[in-house]
Specification:
The complex is a heterodimer. Chain A is mostly helical. Helices cover 75% and strands 0% of the residues of chain A. In chain A, α2 packs across α4, α6 packs across α8 and α7 crosses α8. The radius of gyration of chain B is 19 Å and the shape is globular. The N terminus of chain B is likely disordered. The chains are: A mainly alpha, B mainly alpha.
Chain lengths: 193, 201
């Protein structure tokens, strides 16, 4: 860079002049250009022309754009930004995920309790919950049996049936939990939106 | 009166960075102040890029939502203004890609001067003022006629007063390209003015 600057000879550099007016030339290039300008009438005129034009341009464009914002623009932008949660609201989403996970866990515990009878000495209210939980589980299990039966009848192959059933059942459970929690979360979120 | 002036001074003294931190901490007023600060420049920039009022409002709104959702990703290695212009730039380009019709109408001059109405002051003005405002209308028209790649550089430099480095950060263009394109955009504008019979430029 330094070597070239000493004998930087411009061939009437209109582009450099444009950057010079913006104050965006490196110091050495700027110096070389100024030296060129002292000896070149054409470039001096070019400099003046460009300067006048750019001043007028900035003078016009720096004014506010000819646009009226609606009165409630700020408010609606803020409200919209806050309702369309994704980045900042991670925490909220996470806590709702925890809530749903906790509920599912509770349901599972209740269900297990209802099978094993661990909770039998507890109060009537809990027993009712247990009954409800086990009923839910029974319904879910029946559904799964039905699905498995359907799959089995579809796939009559002898070798895979047993393994396939297990896979199908576990897949169905995973899907059930996934979609269940998703729709539950959507349901929980709607009143706020 | 003095207390009002003081309040204005106070709000200006709070840096963008502090407002960002406030917003991330969950303070709604932090983000609101950021929107207040940038809504005019951003909407103005988008409006001049797209040339359509409703789209400009929609896209600006998108920009602020994007800003809100990515505040945690903002790194102070960039100025906040550079960062927000970058988001606005991307949103405007996206919008033009999705709506090529808008782009088309920008390249050609529209015959009904809808913007003139908004530009000119409503009260009758003396000769000199009129000449000046004609100038402004002309400049706005010529800016609209520029290809989008030139128009954005002209706007970022002359309307938003960004440096070449900042323009490079906003547009993702190399510094040399910024310098060269800006020069060519200006040359094109000067030619357009000469074609329109404006001399002495």
């Amino acid at each position: 860079m330094k070597e070239t600057s000493a004998e930087f000879v411009f061939d009437c550099p209109a582009e450099e002049i444009s950057a010079y007016i913006d104050g965006e030339l490196a110091a050495d290039v700027e110096l070389a250009l100024e030296m060129h300008l002292t000896g070149c009438d054409i470039c001096r005129r070019e400099l003046n022309d460009q300067k006048g034009f750019l001043l007028a341009l900035s003078d016009t464009l720096e004014r506010e754009a000819p646009i009226e914002l609606p009165e409630n623009f700020t408010r609606s932008v803020v409200v919209n930004a806050e309702s369309k949660v994704s980045g900042l609201r991670d925490r909220k989403q996470r806590s709702s995920a925890f809530l749903i996970g906790g509920l599912l866990l509770l349901l599972a515990a209740v269900a297990v309790g209802s099978f094993t009878g661990v909770f039998s000495p507890l109060t009537l209210a809990i027993e009712k919950l247990l009954a409800f939980g086990s009923a839910l589980i029974h319904v879910a299990a029946d559904l799964l049996y039905a699905i498995a039966a359907m799959f089995r009848s579809i796939l009559q192959t002898q070798t895979f049936t047993a393994a396939f059933t297990y896979i199908a059942i576990s897949l169905a459970i995973v899907l059930l939990i996934y979609f269940g929690s998703r729709s539950l979360r959507r349901y929980l979120r709607t009143p706020g939106a | 009166m003095p207390s009002a002036a003081l309040a204005i001074k106070d709000s200006a003294a709070v840096t963008d960075l502090e407002l960002v931190a406030k917003s991330i901490a969950g303070r709604e007023d932090g983000f609101e102040e950021l929107v207040r600060r940038y809504q005019r420049p951003i909407t103005g920039y988008v409006f001049r890029m797209l040339g359509d009022y409703d789209s400009a409002l929609d896209v600006s709104q998108e920009v602020f939502i994007k800003v809100y959702n990515s505040l945690t990703k903002y790194s102070s290695e960039y100025k906040f203004s550079t960062w927000i212009y970058r988001i606005a730039h991307n949103a405007a380009i996206d919008h033009m890609r999705r709506n090529p019709a808008v782009q088309q109408s920008l390249e050609t001059e529209s015959p009904d001067g809808t913007y003139q109405i908004q530009l000119e002051s409503p009260n009758p003005s003396p000769e000199k003022d009129r000449e000046r405002s004609e100038w402004r209308v002309e400049i706005d028209k010529v800016v609209r006629c520029l290809p989008a790649a030139y128009r954005e550089l002209i706007l970022l430099r002359h309307a938003q007063d960004l440096s070449y480095d900042e323009i490079a950060d906003v547009t993702g263009l190399p510094l040399g390209t910024v310098k060269n394109r800006l020069f060519r955009a200006r040359e094109m504008m000067r030619t357009m003015f000469l074609d329109r019979g404006f001399t002495g430029i």
